[in-house]
## 1
Amino acid sequence: MSDRRNAIAAEVPRLTRYACALIRDRREADDLVHDCIVRALANLSGWRDGDSPRKWLFTIMHNIYIDQMRARKRSPVHVVLEEQHHSASVVRPSDDVTQSEINAAMAALPLEQRQCVLLVGLEGLTYAEAADVLGVPAGTVMSRLSRGRERLRELLDRETARPTLRRVK
Amino acid sequence: MTALRQLSDVEINAYADGELSGEAKEDVRLALEADEAARGVAAWRDLLGDRLHEAFDSILSEPPPAQTVRLLRPPQMWTLPRGTRRAAAAFAFAAAAACIGYVAGLQTMNSVGGTIEQVAQRAVGAHQVFASEIRHPVEVAGSDADHLAKWLGKRIGVSFTAPDINDAGFALVGGRLLAEGDRPAALLMYEDSTGRRVTLYIEKWGPDGEDSMRSMVGNGLNTYYWFDSHFACAVSSNIESGKLKVVAGRLYAALELR
């Protein structure tokens, strides 16, 4: 049992990195990771022998996040407050231009694309793993990822970004 | 030359992410050679990855929140909070030694993916190999303590003085340089009048880790280990645990890594 605890503990930094990048608020990210660990410990039997703890934990965290988003949507007032909270917060004084610039661009991306860009591009998951975590087909991950990266290129890399219409034949 | 088809962004990304193999991979590779705009898509994938890591990787070395640490404490070890002020260290240690029942914190990861427990294991291994050595237990003798500390400190990247714990009954035998994988580590050895040995192991840790002392028992040895400003330290011996607690407390308080 303590081996499993240790394996879970070892994933906490990566879960936190992903949560921070995804929701751009350190305290909310820490809370999300905390909730994820609570649920994981309560459901250790859901982690099958031989499975990577990373994929299992990221899946749990994704499900909790989606549940929380749904709960917020039911309460319009809360959604408004969250938006303000997001724009006012962002992480730490030590975080430099790089992070705030990336955060601003990420904020412009739909959640689904952001998740794919971060799971594959930051956390190094394979398409199949990301698809499992998000509960969508791999093809969906591919198109969301590709669109997300292209949108970020327009936002962060204007000089080299292509004219939008290049692909029209 | 065959006319190369237009690549889709999805294909370019899949190729750059290493998701393609065999014919499909070769197909895209060839088409990329002839398509500058497509190469731009692939290059942006790499650049974006770099920028994401640059922006967020510092989070990996931050200690997790205490509330999450508490959730994950394994029940079989103890730890104690280590005062931020060095002056309080000896007292805090004595207090905690008297107070059994602490449990350990989260296993903190270092930048190379190891845990402090793995460092402690390496310290146990080093003790087992070298403490039993009769003729050549050390490379540099304790009589040359200044040179010893300077040399080891230079190799592991820190400035320190070999702690003097003669008043606890242990004299410095000397020390040696160890190789842990591709990284250097330092081992100091102490000995009492009956030839019983205590080793102090120091290895570069990376992030400024959790400030606490823990203990483990294994292979007939007791080991106390802790972080000190980017270094992991461990004291191992087969002397009785009560006595080692005192010696470890002395080393813990006396060792200044700068």
## 2
Amino acid sequence: MVRVEHLNQTFLRTKKLPHIWCPGCGNGIVTAALVRAVERAGFAQRDVVIVSGIGCSSRAAGYLNFNTLHATHGRALAFATGLKLSQPQLKIFVIMGDGDCSAIGGNHFIHAARRNIDLNAVIINNYIYGMTGGQHSPLTPAGRKSTTAPAGTLERPFELLELARGAGATFGARGSAAQPRQLEQLIVQGARHKGFAVIEALSPCPTYYGRKNRQGGPVEMLRALKDSSVSVEGASGLDPAELSEKLVTGVIYVKDAPEYTEQYYRSTGKEPG
Amino acid sequence: MTEVKPVLMQGNVACAEGAITAGVRFYAGYPITPSTEIAEHMAERLPQVGGVFIQMEDEIAGIAAVIGASVGGMRALTATSGPGFSLKQENIGYAIMAEIPCVIVNVQRMGPSTGIPTAPAQGDVMQARWGTHGDHPIVVFSPASVYETFYLTIAAVNLSQKLRQPVILLMDEVVGHMREKVLIPEVGKLLVEKASDEIPPDWKPYDDKGLAPLVPFGSGHYYHVTGLFHDESGFPSGDPAVVSRSLERLHGKLEKYRHEVTFTSYIGHKEPRVAIVTYGCTVRSARAAIKKAYWQNRWPVGLLSLQTIWPFPAKEVEALARQVEMIMVPEMNMGQLVGEVERYSRGRAEVVPLNRYDGEMITPDQIFDQLRRWFA
């Protein structure tokens, strides 16, 4: 309890609470995991910046007691790229939703990955646009219903971590609101990794996705998330048919490659400014 | 007195050099004709001065990274042309709302759409004023020469910092690509207006009183930056009183410092009967026409050239309209700023447009012929 008190008082803007999220939303669980991860990683508070885009998940920035930049829809990574280059010592966490990151922000996402710039992208994936009332995103599984796909979407989803890997990201991990301790660990590992880190955090939206697709309430949705999760180690023993039903969680890939900011300043031989 | 040295320079390069002289250390952008030389020059020069050049994945990312770097405390600029200027509009609005200083250069080309990338035009006057949504204030400068480009870029950077507002430098293809003599002062002597490093003890990021400095991220002052309506502390608010006060403050700030952002100049007869009001490269043709009309023919004519086009120099035009019978407004579009001239002439003088929109400059003869018809 002492730790929780300390985290709340230090890293949350408690006066800005209660938050705007619906009952049963997973955004609070992911945000809490992020706060614990920041503390566990041991970063100085003044060096931590939260950048977010637009959508339900991006409102997290307003509740966190750091320098916080609530940018425009889809552009959080582009804002963060400029900020990181202006002050390379900053530890920047970029919170985005599935639509924000992979639809309107898709171009910035692949190019941040390509540059391998040291940003920590935390994508809260609830398979739906929540703020606008329940439209499908590029991460919504095919066939699922939304207010703009009343008969189920015909579109195939991105596999976000593979998209990032193909574009050059050097760290990819997946966790969920159903396993917040693991998620916290994954964010710590991503934050300590030098390069572009992608952490996909699956999260329930009972209000829109759950209701449209008859997934039950928050408890059922969290249970379903947990039941379908399998660790990277556990997944290695499954055949492809079994695996296709599963959500593989853990660090999916890590590799070494030159980081952009460091490379830039090394090439100029100058200090920033 | 500051030492000066004459240099032959291209307009786009003068913009880049003016920016560096004014302390700009960050450039992010996307290649587009006819502004590309600004990016090319920045790519070479910024690394030499500890600055950052980055070519982004698109125009939107260019302005977004510029805003990010500015929040990090670096003076930042981006350059583009018509199609790219359209793409940047949303984030220009963000910088206005969040009060993040930055300079956006638009080297205008013939539009709409892809238009003619290499042909000059002045079609983005109204877009520079109203391109981003919502009821916002904006500062727009329009240089007529390479020399003016250098100095107006410096003014744009300094005023953007002071007012914590984006400033738009609305160049055109002619000025961007021409080469002319510029007198470059010894760097650092007079041109960089440095903000105070001291942060007042009761600092609020969006203080209602006076001009609150922007405290860069990473300095231990935790605050929130958002494009949502926000109170003095920066946190979102939908309270009608906060909303109206915020908007009035944004507009009021510019109104209060209007005299500092308004640059105009007048040449010609002391008591003119006819005046020309114009801006950008068209000033050059107007100046040549005035030389012939006033210095050779001694007609009572004058030229008011506008280096600042927004906020519109209303007082200056109003005063002029009291003096003259006719104001001619040559523009390389189908008539944009002429509407403002009419508005502030308040019926006191006849306002006559002179438009050209074929991708060619208005010539001195075109203007002179109009004057001759008046005096004939």
